[in-house]
Amino acid sequence: MMSGLLFESDEQRFTRCYEHARGYHRRALLLAPQSSSVSLVFNVASLAVECYLIALCALHNIMPMNHNYRSLLTSASEKVTFTSALSEDIAALDALFGICSIDDYYHGTPDEQDKARILSVCEALDALIVAEQKRSPALDHLRENRG
Known about the structure:
The protein is built from five helices and no strands. It is mostly helical. The longest helix has 25 residues, at 10-34.
């Protein structure tokens, strides 16, 4: 039980989501050379991307109202600067994989290029979280969650 709170704190949400993101990311990297299933690697990495974006929001006390990639990117962009290339790569994921949408759920068929792109997005998001933690002294208490 979370110390009597109905909802987890931003710090708890960050810690949980960042840990999950890194776990999914690691698993996708392990699967990439072992599996001939591009879709499997892509699906695991897509979970990492979602968790990385939620962690970035939690890091800055932002509560995203929707969990598709574009909405998470928009929410995180309130406090985080993304390169245009990273923003485009994240937004493009919605065209292939319509997560968290009741009305428009769909799942395309990723190819090798999509697999490479999503793994690159994972790397960039992990690096961005590390940079954000270093950038803000107010976030010092969250640096220990890198390990």
